[in-house]
Amino acid sequence: MTESEMKIEEYTKIFHEIVQYGKEFSMDNSKMKDEEYIKVLREMLRHENELSNQRLTWMTTLNGLMFTALGFIWSGKYDPLTSMESDHILIAAFCILGFVISCSGLIALQMAEDAKKHFKKLWKDKNIQESEIPPIMGITLKGSLKHFLLPWNIIPWSLIVFWCLLFLLNFGSFVRDLK
Prior knowledge:
With 179 residues, the chain is an all-alpha fold. The protein has helices at 8-18, 34-75, 85-125, 144-148, 151-178. Helix 2 runs antiparallel to helix 3 (85-125), helix 2 (34-75) packs parallel to helix 5 and helix 3 packs antiparallel against helix 5. The protein is elongated.
C-alpha cells in the first residue's frame, strides 16, 4: 500500500487522534504525507466553521423568537408600570431562558475558536511551512478589542447583558408593584 492509498479506517483513526485535544498527537509519517495531513486539517477546519455558523444561527433565532414573544406580552395588556404578577413571572422566565441559551451559545462558539487554534497548533507541530497554513479568516486580527468585537464574540455577550438588564428591570417593576 502506498502513502496515498490509505483506507477510510486509517483516516478515521487519524481524525480521532487529532481531535483528542488533551493528548499528544503522534502520526506515522509513512502512512500520511504532509499534503494529505493538510487536507485532513483543512476539512476539519471547514467543518468547525460550519458548526460555528449553525451555533450562531440557532442562538440568534431562538433569541429572536423570545424577543417576539416578549413583544406579544408587551403589546397586549402588559404595562411595565401597572403589570400583574403573572406577567413578571413570564418575563423573568424568558430572561432566564434567554440568558441560558446565550451562555450556551457563547460557550459553544468559544469552543469552536479553541478548536481552530488547536488546528493551527497541529500544523505548526508538524513543522509545516507557515505559508502552507491557511489563515483561519482572510485576515488575522491583532488586539483583544478587535477580536472581542467579532460577531461570534459580541453577539452572545450582548444578548447575555440584555437578558440580565431586562431581568433587573422586570424585578424592579415587580418590587414596585408589591408596594
